[in-house]
Amino acid sequence: MPEQSRTGVKICGLTDEVGFDACVEHGADWIGFVFFERSPRFVTPEQAACLARRERGQAKTVGLFVHPQDDDIAKVLDHAPLDVLQIYASDERAQQISEVFGLPVWLSYPVAGRDELPPTCPVQRMLIEPRPPKDATRPGGNAQKLDWSLLAGWQPSFPWMLAGGLTVDNVAEAVRVTGAPAVDVSSGVESAPGIKDPSLIARFVRHARSN
Questions:
Q1: What DSSP designation does 200 have?
Q2: Strand, coil or helix: what is 134?
Q3: Which DSSP category does 78 fall into?
């Protein structure tokens, strides 16, 4: 787990060795793999396994699944050692997955207003992000920025993470306004869809922890 005194950083959607190694070098706390075929960041279990076997220091691996069946997760775990499961599903389904696999589960939780913020956490962490556009072909932040003012002063009793539209230029302000204990980025540190830029990763981690 990241230290309490610093902002936790997750870099999501890793597809190659260069990006993976940059996450480790620059001190990301979590490195995410996307197991959703419609994403440009999709990796197979075998690809994730090859990356996860690289030197990863203190970084934990996170697998992102969208409304998965148990078999979908099991097939990945047969190949790739994951420390955390990040799930798009209902509260009840996320709890069930946690019980079945005995791993920490993070529940992705899109919101559009302060009244939609979760009052409780059914799993180990909530990942707060903006609702996707109506025409979106995949869940997640879709590079949209959440209205951070919705989170000002919000102090839930459970672990959470901020996602959606974060970049090297705005992450420091996002942490300052929301008080987020951790942040998640994907497209904001890319040179092209699915291709992570080591220099952007370095700057993002540094700026996220600059408050």
A1: H
A2: coil
A3: T
Measured from the Cβ of residue 90, the count of other Cβ atoms closer than 10 Å reads 12
| Contact present, 2 and 182 (Cβ < 8 Å) | yes
Greatest Cα pair distance, the chain, in angstroms, is 42
Mean pLDDT value across residues 76-82: 95
Task: Quote the DSSP letter at residue 15.
Answer: -
| Alpha-carbon gap, residue 79 to 66, rounded angstroms | 19
Answer whether 110's CB lies under 8 Å from 131's CB. yes
Mean pLDDT, the chain, integer: 92
Tell me how far apart the alpha carbons of residues 163 and 166 are, in angstroms, rounded to a whole number: 7
Rounded CA-CA distance 28/185 in Å is 11
Give residue 142's pLDDT band: very low, low, confident or very high (50, 70, 90): very low
Q: Please report, in angstroms and rounded to a whole number, the separation of the first and last CA atoms in the chain.
A: 19
Q: How many Cβ atoms from other residues are within 10 Å of residue 164's Cβ?
A: 26
**pLDDT value at residue 124:** 97
pTM above 0.85, yes or no: yes
pLDDT at position 133? 60
Q: What is the DSSP string of 136-193?
A: -SS-S-TTPPP-GGGGTT---SS-EEEESS--TTTHHHHHHHH--SEEEESGGGEEET
